[in-house]
Specification:
Length: 527
């Protein structure tokens, strides 16, 4: 009996292709394998915290490398004791009210007169002594930028009232004012020529050393005063104290010749025309410009000795990072080899090597570092001796982690298969087992870096390691120098502490991101 529903009996022309001339999908399927490091990068970039940490670390590294190239007016070894502990100052940023080199302070009346007097004397180039305080307040060299409210009070009942001026804004670089210098006659001639060429006054009249000079060593007491207060001299010879006011004209106490002209230099010794020593009084701000060819600019201010804090900070970052990376690389090499041998062979080999590790674990790091600094540093220097102290026991943690990972993976089927196929021990160790332990080992190595930076900073902060000369410094040394005076000069502590904190946090976040990225159990897993 013939079946009517037999599909073979249906004519071909009765069929219609539903998806003729159409694609089901434009998606392309690739079966190309993803490499180990590419797969790690794909996972690492999904960790936003680690990416941000890596960017911050990169910025800090770039700052440490670029700062010496961008700051060309002076080198990292340049020190100016007159500009020590000054706040940040940048001529470009100061135009928008940032980094002006100013602080806020309270002045007594005598102190305010002395500070304002710097601007008055700077404008009185010929020593006429006729300028008012108001005219001095408009001077470019005036350190007092604004005068706060005057408050009069009496500490003891019946005592003479005292007046103080609160919240006065002071430009710290101009506050240095005038200083006395001993220079050779040839140098004096060069300064005079530079003044004529640039129109910038450096040399100013000398001051008499008499009863009206409060401090003969302080060149800013150019006006007549008694007990710190400016005075006027009556015909009877008695001095009368003058109160601060903007219409005040300070009576100068300049040294003058027989004709009444101000004296700008005084011969103090020396034999020849070139080497004769002259005592001069200079406006230090302009003297700095004469010596260095530019106005003082320190983007982070200066440290307690007068070095550029930005350059010292950059040098400290470079030293800390270089030391930490070297320690991490050496510890990774020694620890990986030592731990791999322990974990792979086990048995008596592991037992003997573990006892050696136990002995080394018992050596206190701070004692080792101190002894190395006391004895080894005299021969090889403080930095190499510190490196030896870190390496002596620093590789033990890496060796322990590597040993643990080898015990975990050496019994896996793929290792047994490789051994069955005749693979040698070194191939099994480095080709089959070590890549699986790489994530943990790399993480531990990266996390060594903040540990080394922290330990080095601690040692230099305590003074165990001496890294505070003109050539080298560290973050710990900067913090140590700032510790006694940071309340008055907070910028000395703020910048190194901020950098150190960022390095600690960011390297830990970065290491955690690497740990997840190099974890082989997560390969191909979408988060």
């Amino acid at each position: 009996m013939k079946k009517t529903n037999d599909i073979n009996n249906i004519p071909r022309e009765k069929f219609t292709l539903v998806q003729e001339n159409r694609r089901l999908s434009d998606q392309k399927f690739e079966d190309k394998p993803i490499g180990y490091f590419k797969d790690a990068w794909i996972r690492f970039r999904k960790n936003k915290g680690s990416i941000v940490a890596a960017i911050i670390i990169l910025i800090i590294v770039l700052f440490s490398l670029a700062a010496p190239l961008l700051i060309t007016s002076h080198s990292a070894t340049f020190m100016d004791v007159y500009y020590a502990k000054k706040p940040s100052r940048d001529l470009l940023l100061s135009k928008i009210g940032i980094s002006q080199g100013t602080t806020t302070r309270t002045f007594s009346e005598a102190g305010l007169v002395k500070a304002v007097g710097i601007g008055v004397a700077a404008e009185d180039r010929d020593g006429s002594g006729t300028l008012t305080v108001a005219e001095g307040l408009t001077s470019y060299y005036q350190p007092i930028r604004s005068i706060g409210e005057a408050v009069t009070y009496s500490e003891i009942k019946g005592a003479k009232p005292k007046t103080v001026y609160n919240d006065c804004t002071v430009e710290n670089y101009l506050e240095v004012g005038f200083i006395y210098k001993s220079i050779e006659q040839a140098e004096y001639a060069r300064i005079v020529a530079w003044q004529e060429e640039t129109g910038i006054q450096v040399l100013y009249p000398l001051v008499q050393n008499n009863e009206y000079n409060m401090d003969a060593s302080d060149a800013n007491y150019w006006y007549k005063s008694k007990k710190g207060q400016p005075v006027t001299i009556k015909a009877s010879g008695k001095a009368k104290t003058v109160a601060f006011s903007e219409d005040l004209v300070l009576e100068d106490n300049y040294k003058r010749d027989a004709e009444g002209n101000p004296v700008y230099y005084e011969y103090t010794g020396g034999g020849t025309h070139e080497t004769a020593q002259f005592k001069v009084r200079v406006l230090y701000y302009n003297y700095y410009r004469y010596l260095n060819g530019a106005e003082p600019e320190y983007i982070f201010g200066t440290d307690s000795q007068g070095y550029d804090l930005a350059l010292r900070l950059a040098g400290g970052i470079r030293l800390s990072l270089l030391l930490a990376i070297c320690v991490s690389a050496i510890n990774l090499t020694i620890g990986a080899i030592y731990g791999a041998i322990e974990g792979y062979y086990g048995g008596a080999v592991d037992l003997i090597l573990e006892r050696v590790s136990d002995i080394l674990w018992g050596i206190p790091f701070i004692v080792t570092a101190t002894l190395f600094q006391m004895h080894l540093a005299k021969k090889v220097g403080p930095i190499p001796s510190l490196l030896f102290a870190f390496v002596l026991t620093g590789w033990l943690s890496t060796a322990y982690r590597t040993r643990t990972q080898f015990y975990r993976f050496k019994g896996q089927e793929y290792v047994l298969a490789a051994r069955t196929l005749g693979a040698k021990d070194w191939r099994i160790i480095w080709k089959h087992i070590f890549p699986n332990a790489l994530g943990t080992i790399i993480t531990s190595s990266v996390l060594v870096i903040p540990g080394v930076i922290s330990s080095e900073s601690m040692l230099s902060y305590l003074g165990i390691v001496k890294l505070g000369d003109a050539q080298t410094t560290s973050l710990g040394t900067l913090l140590s120098d700032a510790a006694p005076i940071w309340t008055n000069y907070p910028h000395l502590l703020l910048y190194p502490a901020l950098v150190l904190a960022l390095l600690m946090i960011c390297f830990n976040l970065f290491g955690n991101g690497l740990r997840d990225a190099f974890n082989p159990s997560l390969r191909g897993v979408e988060e």
